[in-house]
Each structure stands twice: as structure tokens, then as C-alpha cells.
Design brief:
single chain, nine-stranded parallel β-sheet, seven-stranded mixed β-sheet, 16 strands
């Protein structure tokens, strides 16, 4: 295979700074790629003699690992910025009717293509994605992901107690899920997630069958929502009055483990967070969605105390931006309101390697380390007049923080998948 090289400023945060790990930074760096994998990541002066014969492309900007979105709904793309009340009313008013449209495969194909291109435009190279109850909605997403060579994990939504237009059965939900796993396993860079929407949209029998499905497929994830909204939590408590808490409901059906990714987790007891840490479950922190719907403020410090792995989630369409830069900026504000802080190196970790670890992919993506997949983005801290003025002569910390607070899709100069250009700002690759 042919080696390729990119010379630019390099930054990666493969280990969590909260544990004392230092970022890996090379002001003049060299990234060597072969067969879509990283061969070397380091200082140009150190690596150039070893790879003197490799054609080198010089890039103007800061190379970081591609962003990993740990919770996003592709069928809600057309309902971003939908005015409404809080979670349960918002779902009824805006989302369920929209998702019913995905019974039409042609509609699903159109939205999936736009959705994935929008992720790439915003620097997101991997994502854990909600589809709809329709198996064809997953087919549409996976077809589009294979065409782009993106690392996408998704699954058919299970909701036999949902609205009439979005209702399956225990039997059909299991059959559709098994067929999708058989059809897509091993294709491209895809993964499957067992996806009960949340406790209130599945019967006890379906939740139990979701646990059985997860156990039957050790390469699958569990992807669902947990403790997002106080009204939701109250309804779950009313249905399961003997449960210790919301997480305990999932636990009794075999859905809490090292392959479980729970979105939101705002209204959590110490017992529940301790159980998640013990089980190795992960949280998708979705600040723009939580603020937009008035759901509450996620307590990152509490999750840290209990050792719960956390990643960043855009949560489109309650989330208000595809940009994980913008999401990181809102996460900083949430932490401020919670009385803690989020420095830019840790924010970048959560949006890259932290998210990869949350999805069980820490060995494959997120750090640009030798042997990992070469998914990366080129950040431009001169992308807007304000960014350029704010970052002129600034330290790496201040430049990265300015990108976290002021950055958006305009700061993504280019996105690369497996070492190949997938998006170039303003021009085709």
C-alpha cells in the first residue's frame, strides 16, 4: 500500500486530562497514513528522515481527530429549531409525525444523504445515530454511510407502546432487528445498536426482548435515553413504583452493561451513577438539546466522580447544531452553571477519544494513534474575523478555547475519512 503524509500542526487528546494525561501536540507535525490507518503521528523533525521518500502535503491549520457524535437523530433533521414545550409535548407536537414519514424509503434516502454530508461539513466522522421504527430507515442510513466510508452505528427503533403511526410489536421488532444485523454486519465501517426509544415507548415484554437481543449479539451496542426530563422520570416512576430509580428499570431487563450508551442522564441519583460506573456504561452529554428543551443541566463532575465514561452528543433535532465545536461551547456553559469547568483540552477529548471510548471504539478511532483509523479534521482558527482577531498570537490553550466558544462549521477547513478528503470547505475534494 502507498504511504501518504500530511504536514501541519497536530493535536490529539487520546487520554482524559482529568486523570492527568497531557495532550499530544506538535506545532510542526507529520501524520503518516497507509491503507486508511495511522502509521505515525509526531514531530516533523523526528519523522521526516524516516519518511523522506513519502509525498507530503502541507496543510494550513490544526489537525485534530475527527469528532465522534455519541447521540443524534437523523430523522429529526428537518425539525431542528421546532418551537414547542418540553420533551414529551415536543415529541408529540413535532417529532412523531415527522418520523412517520420515514416509512417512505425515498424520503429516508434523501434525508440520510443530507444528514451525513452535514456531519462531515461539521467535522463529525463517526456517530451513534437514532433511526426510526422502520427497518428501511436503517437501510437508508447504512447505504449512505457505506458510500461515504463513514463509521456509523445505528439500529431500528423499538417502540411497541408508541403512537399508532410508529408502533411495532415484540415479534416484528425482533425479526426486523435480526434481519438488519444479518444484512449489515461486516459491511463498511458500520455497527449495530439495539435501540428501544425509552422506557415509556416499550412494553415490559419488548424491553425484556431488547435485553435478549443485546445478549445474543455481543458486537452490538445498547442505545437509548435516560433521565432526560422530570415529567418523563415521573412517568417511569409511576409505571415502575418498585424500581430504585430510572436506571434500575433498564437494569432489570438486562440493558445496563459495558455496551450501553445512555443519552442525557440529567436527573440521576448517586446510586444510578455508581451503578453505571460499575457496569462500564456510558453517557452522551447533549447540552444544546438539554438547554433547548429546558430539560436541565447535566452534572459532568458527578459522572466523573463515579467513573462514568462520557462523550458529546449533538442530539439533532432537539439539539440546535450539528457542530460539536458549538456543542462543546454549550457544554462549557452548562459546567459553569453547575459550578465546575470544562477546559478546551478536555472538551476536545470528550468530542473525540472520549466519545470513541463511550462507543467501545477507543482502539480504532479518536486519537490518531498508530494503528487507528485516519479520520481527522483540519481546524481553521482564522475562519472568521473575530476568531482571527481573538487567536492572533494566542497560546494553544486560548486558541482551542476560542474555537470551542466561537467556532462552528466555518472553522472546519476539511474533513478526512481513512486518510482521504471527504469535505473541503467551499470546494469539492
Amino acid at each position: 500500500m502507498t504511504l501518504t503524509a500530511y504536514r501541519a500542526e497536530l493535536l490529539s487528546v487520546p487520554e482524559d486530562p482529568i486523570n492527568g494525561a497531557a495532550p499530544l501536540h506538535h506545532a510542526d507535525g507529520l501524520l503518516i497514513i497507509e491503507g486508511g490507518l495511522v502509521v505515525a503521528f509526531g514531530a516533523y523533525a523526528d519523522l521526516a528522515p524516516r519518511f523522506a521518500d513519502v509525498p507530503t502535503e502541507e496543510l494550513n491549520g490544526l489537525i485534530v481527530p475527527g469528532f465522534v457524535d455519541t447521540h443524534v437523530h437523523y430523522p429529526q433533521t428537518d425539525r431542528v429549531a421546532a418551537h414547542g414545550l418540553q420533551l414529551l409535548d415536543w415529541l408529540e407536537r413535532h417529532i412523531f409525525a415527522e418520523e412517520a414519514r420515514f416509512a417512505d424509503r425515498g424520503h429516508a434516502d434523501t434525508v440520510a444523504a443530507f444528514f451525513l454530508d452535514e456531519l462531515l461539513r461539521n467535522g463529525t466522522t463517526s456517530a451513534l445515530v437514532f433511526a426510526t421504527v422502520h427497518a428501511s430507515s436503517v437501510d437508508a442510513l447504512f447505504d449512505a454511510a457505506v458510500a461515504r466510508d463513514m463509521r456509523i452505528i445505528s439500529g431500528k427503533v423499538l417502540m411497541d407502546d408508541g403512537p399508532a403511526t410508529l408502533r411495532d410489536t415484540v415479534t416484528s421488532g425482533r425479526a426486523d432487528s435480526e434481519a438488519l444485523i444479518a444484512r449489515w454486519r461486516g459491511r463498511g465501517r458500520l455497527g449495530y445498536a439495539v435501540t428501544p426509544r425509552f422506557v415509556l415507548t416499550s412494553s415490559d415484554d419488548q424491553l425484556a426482548d431488547a435485553g435478549a437481543l443485546l445478549a445474543a449479539h455481543p458486537d452490538a451496542l445498547l442505545h437509548t435515553h435516560l433521565a432526560e426530563n422530570t415529567g418523563e422520570c415521573a412517568a417511569v416512576a409511576a409505571r415502575f413504583p418498585d424500581a430504585a430509580d430510572y436506571l434500575d428499570v433498564y437494569d432489570r431487563f438486562g440493558l445496563v452493561g459495558s455496551r450501553s450508551v445512555f443519552a442525557h442522564c440529567i436527573h440521576m441519583s448517586d446510586r444510578a451513577l455508581g451503578r453505571m460506573g460499575e457496569a462500564g456504561s456510558a453517557i452522551a452529554f447533549c447540552p444544546t438539546s438539554n438547554l433547548f428543551l429546558g430539560s436541565g443541566l447535566f452534572d459532568l463532575a458527578a459522572a466523573d466522580r463515579h467513573g462514568v465514561q462520557t462523550g458529546m452528543g449533538s442530539d439533532i433535532g432537539a439539539g440546535t447544531s450539528f457542530s460539536l465545536l458549538a456543542t462543546m461551547g454549550e457544554a462549557y456553559k452548562v459546567c459553569q452553571l453547575r459550578g465546575s469547568t470544562l477546559d478546551p483540552f478536555r472538551a476536545l477529548h470528550l468530542a473525540t477519544a472520549g466519545g470513541a471510548k463511550a462507543l467501545g471504539l477507543g482502539d480504532r478511532i479518536g486519537g490518531l494513534q498508530p494503528g487507528q483509523e485516519a479520520d481527522f479534521i483540519l481546524l481553521d482558527d482564522q475562519a472568521t474575523p473575530l476568531l482571527a482577531r481573538r487567536t492572533a498570537g494566542a497560546s494553544l490553550f486560548d486558541r482551542l478555547f476560542a474555537l470551542q466558544i466561537l467556532g462552528d462549521d466555518r472553522a472546519i477547513a476539511a474533513t478526512y475519512l481513512a486518510g482521504k478528503c471527504a469535505h473541503l470547505r467551499g470546494n469539492p475534494c
